[in-house]
Design brief:
Blueprint (H helix, E strand, L loop, with lengths): L2 E9 L10 E10 L2 E10 L8 H7 L3 H4 L5 H12 L3 E4 L2 H14 L11 E4 H8 L7 H8 L11 H15 L1 H9 L3 H10 L14 H17 L5 H6 L1
Parallel strand pairs: 1-4, 4-5
Antiparallel strand pairs: 1-2, 2-3
């Protein structure tokens, strides 16, 4: 059974290095490409002020959070929920940096030691749609996900929207992977296709496009336990 967890956070500001902290964590579980009913959600006392600019984004102030638990109090439940899963995060570097600092303060080790892999949907979106907007709102519009109720950012709400966008973004790819379980089966299936290519116009990729493609495949190799299917077929 394939288990994925879509994760989002809200914070006191934009700079973890300058002391900003997490104030909300939202996680949505996906099992075999179906959004399940299991979620993890918590607000946190950041033990510091919330920047005005951040409050305008998510609507939360320090006063709203004073009675909420501090991160160490929820750390075990959080790690139990994400343990071994493939994490789906939009702009993963941002959330992972904040989570790693919180986990470090609790002496629990970085996030990557607790999960199977981390997938960045911001990177995926830019790879799939070069030059187009890649915000969560843009993805919702592109893939027909209703976000009209998103007047403010919220970790659980945004994780749910991202889960729906991710499933739409990867629908064709995941169907192929489920049907073709081994590289040999995939190669045989592609070889059996009868396609007339005599009239096709082939445009060679630009050098910068090749570089971006190789970078994307490098990322797939890191996430896949046995390497990416693309490189195995092309070998």
């Amino acid at each position: 059974m394939t288990r994925q967890v879509v994760l989002d956070t809200e914070t006191t500001g934009l700079s973890a290095k300058l002391g900003d902290r997490i104030i909300e964590i939202g996680c949505i579980e996906i099992l075999d490409r179906r959004i399940s009913e299991r979620v993890f959600h918590t607000y946190l006392n950041p033990e510091r002020e919330v920047e005005l600019g951040a409050t305008r984004v998510h609507g939360l102030t320090r006063e709203d959070l004073l009675a909420k638990p501090k991160f160490p109090a929820v750390a075990k439940d959080f790690l139990d929920f994400v343990a071994g899963a493939e994490l789906i995060i939009h702009n993963a570097d941002f959330d992972v940096e904040f989570l790693d600092l919180e986990l470090g303060r609790a002496r629990l080790g970085p996030l990557k030691e607790h999960v199977g892999a981390i997938v960045d949907t911001l990177f995926m979106s830019r790879e799939l749609n070069p030059g187009r907007k890649a915000s969560l709102d843009a993805l919702c519009e592109r893939y027909g996900v209703n976000n009209t109720h998103r007047t403010l950012h919220g970790a659980l709400l945004d994780a749910r929207l991202l889960a729906e966008c991710y499933l739409a973004m990867t629908r064709g790819q995941e169907s192929l992977m489920m049907e073709l379980e081994t590289p040999a089966a995939a190669a045989a299936a592609f070889a059996a296709l009868q396609i007339d290519v005599s009239s096709l116009i082939v445009l060679p990729p630009l050098p910068e496009e090749i570089v971006l493609h190789e970078q994307y495949l490098d990322g797939l190799d890191k996430e896949a336990k046995s390497g990416s299917l693309w490189r195995k077929l092309a070998a």
